[in-house]
Amino acid sequence: PMPTVAIVGRPNVGKSTLFNRLVGRKLALVDDRPGVTRDRREGEARLGHLLFTIIDTAGLEEADSESLAGRMRAQTEAAIAEADAVLFVIDARAGLLPADQPFAELVRRADKPVILLANKAEGGAGLAGAYEAFGLGLGDPVPVSAEHGEGMGQLLDALAEVL
Ligand code: GDP
Ligand code: MG
Question: What is the ipTM of this complex?
Answer without folding.
Answer: 0.99
